[in-house]
Amino acid sequence: MLYLASTSPRRRELLQQIGLTFEVLKVSVDESPLEDETPAEYVARLAVAKARAAMELVSSGDIVLGADTTVVCDGRIIGKPESLEEAVAIWQSLSRRSHQVLTGVALARGELVTHRVVTTEVHFKELLPAEMEAYWHTGEPRDKAGGYGIQGRGAVWVDRISGSYSNVVGLPLAETAEMLDGFGYSVWSQA
Fold first, then answer.
1. Could you tell me if 163 and 121 are in contact, meaning their C-beta atoms sit under 8 angstroms apart?
2. Is 68 a catalytic residue?
3. Confidence of residue 191 (pLDDT cuts 50, 70, 90)
4. Nearest to 151 by CA among 3, 9, 1, 7
5. Which long-range contacts (CB under 8 A, 24 or more apart) does 137-144 make?
6. In the predicted model, is pLDDT for residue 17 greater than 70?
7. How would residue 124 be classed by pLDDT, with cut points 50, 70 and 90?
8. Catalytic residue among 62, 68, 143, 159
9. Distance separating alpha carbons of residues 117 and 125, to the nearest angstrom
10. Separation of alpha carbons 3 and 30, rounded Å
11. Which of 42, 106, 136, 180 could be joined to 66 by an S-S link, Cβ 3.0–4.6 Å?
């Protein structure tokens, strides 16, 4: 059985998109960055921690998928905005430039845990004050790293990406399918 150690609706939709059957497990891990931790180390650590926490709830033969996504600009992790002012500050820092979206993906079965980090480069057009305020009031930015959803209205700000689109949504599908295949769980055998 495959379990997703995440309540993210976007990750659920992405796994459903590629035809996987799975159960969702809610786990709680401390998501505070550690001192001197790089963004790649951060998302990898959280993905592994989520997978390991979920393994405590399932059988040793089950597979658990944990993931964590963050936005990085100038080497700094950009979290989820909690106010309009915070969102505008984030968006101003991303306007007319590139940033990275990093997702750590971890798979666990019994004692075996493997992980990888996928990076996508995202470039924003110039963001105008009126559209930033209007976007905030849609409610979409509140639960998303970097304060935007490429799969929603935030897409109008993205003028180009280099790398995995699904990674920016929250789970790099090609890499996840490859990892699952390494665990003997093929996307194609689920059809």
1. yes
2. yes
3. low
4. 9
5. 141/81, 141/87, 142/80, 142/81, 142/82, 143/80, 144/80
6. yes
7. very high
8. 68
9. 26
10. 20
11. 106
CATH of domain 2-190: 3.90.950.10
Alpha helices of the chain — where are they, by DSSP H?
A: 9-17, 39-55, 84-94, 129-136, 165-169, 173-182
- Report pLDDT digits (tens) over 68-105: 999 999 999 999 999 999 999 999 999 999 999 999 99
Residues 6+ apart with CB under 8 A from 134: none
From CA 136, how far away is CA 61, in angstroms rounded?
A: 43
10 Å CB burial of residue 67 (0-12, 13-18, 19+) is buried
Give 113's contacts (C-beta < 8 A, 6+ positions apart): 48, 51, 52, 106, 107
pTM greater than 0.85 (yes/no): yes
pLDDT at 143: 87
Residues composing the chain: 191
Predicted pLDDT at 80 = 92
User: Residue 100 has what pLDDT?
Assistant: 98
HSE-up of residue 91 (Cα within 13 Å, Cβ side): 28
Cβ atoms within 10 Å of 41's Cβ, excluding its own: 14
